[in-house]
Amino acid sequence: MEIxxxxxxxxxxxxxxxxxxxxMVRSRLLLAIEDEKLTYSIVPVEPPYEREVQLEETDYGxxxxxxxxxxxxINGKLAGRIRVLTWWNQFGYIEDLAVNPEYRGMGVGRKxxxxxxxxxRETSHPGVMLETQxxxxxxxxxxASCGFILSGFDRNxxxxxxxxxxxxxxxxxxFF
Length: 176
Fold this sequence. Notes:
The protein is mainly beta. It contains 2 helices and 9 strands; from the N terminus they run ββββββαβαββ. The longest helix has 15 residues, at 108-122.
């Protein structure tokens, strides 16, 4: 099985609706601070539950910087997507990383993340940052395995969308 990573063509859609963001939550990151450093352990969630993140089909980027989109394909089918852009602080920002359920666990997310990191290096960013949730443990472990450092959190960022939200936003950085 070969994973092909390609940049979105200028006349092509970002295919947002072609990617499922459903997943089962079986664990979460439990945060702590030790020696002024943010740490975590992975704890089970009982009972497990399904989560789905809804995203809009947008290509506006941030402050005039449109996103660059890369797709992962396997046997000519879309397996995943990453959207990267320049953030307000000049870091490369991974705005979205999605892998369809049938391709998860095959290295698609890692290949896309590596391509996003390569894009940030090629475009002279000082590093890469991203945000995910404490109940998205597969993503968190991927980021940590690629050298990202957990650097911050926000327990209220999702409250406007859902006042009962239990997720905590986690901010990860990779410095070059």
